[in-house]
Design goal:
Elements (H helix, E strand, L loop, with lengths): L5 H15 E3 L3 E6 L2 H14 L3 E7 L3 E8 H17 L7 H14 L7 H12 L2 E2 H8 L3 H13 L4 E4 L6 E3 L1
Antiparallel strand pairs: 1-2, 2-4, 3-4, 5-7, 6-7
């Protein structure tokens, strides 16, 4: 498999991202029990020039993880768009949209500015939302939103409206 053309290797990697991949703003992660397969996927990343690393989780069941890091994500996404143009059947679907949005987060004008917390407070004055909803609204990582939500909670500016669901709801 590793001797296939780069285009084919990218298609293999995309298939695993579609089936087993998790995407957030900093990396793509593929979790599998098959350590050798994860190592092969990492070799594919090396061949394609996508910055990646492998980690191993030792719990009740041994899991291996491939992490395609931020720089690797950007190169992969550009190559994916070229491949998708050539073969329209190749489609990351909502995961492709999530990838695209992750790059917008890092290119937005208010990244790492002091106004982010005030922006979230203003939104929560008018609506009750979860971290995921706020992150989508302000185009920020969930981790970044959680940081500001925690500060707003500690300052007693907002409160938890509903913590019985998977995604807690916050408001004033």
């Amino acid at each position: 498999m590793l001797s296939l053309r780069k285009e084919s290797l990218l298609a293999v990697l995309i298939a695993f991202i579609i089936d087993e991949g998790h995407i957030d703003s900093t990396q793509i992660t593929i979790n599998l029990k098959n350590k050798l397969l994860i190592e092969d996927l990492n070799k594919i990343c090396d061949i394609l020039g996508y910055e990646s690393k492998v980690t191993f989780l030792l719990k009740e069941i041994n899991y291996s993880r491939l992490h395609i890091l931020r720089k690797g994500m950007a190169r992969l996404y550009k190559a994916y768009l070229v491949l998708k143009e050539k073969y329209t059947i190749i489609d990351l679907g909502w995961k492709g949209e999530k990838l695209r949005k992750s790059f917008e987060i890092y290119n937005r004008a208010i990244i790492r500015t002091k106004g982010n917390q005030d922006l979230m407070f203003d939104i929560l004055r008018n609506e009750q939302l979860s971290v995921n909803q706020i992150a989508e609204r302000v185009n920020m990582t969930r981790q970044g939103v959680r940081y500001h939500i925690h500060k707003l909670l500690n300052d007693r500016k907002i409160r938890i409206i509903n913590n019985k669901e998977l995604n807690w709801i916050y408001g004033v």
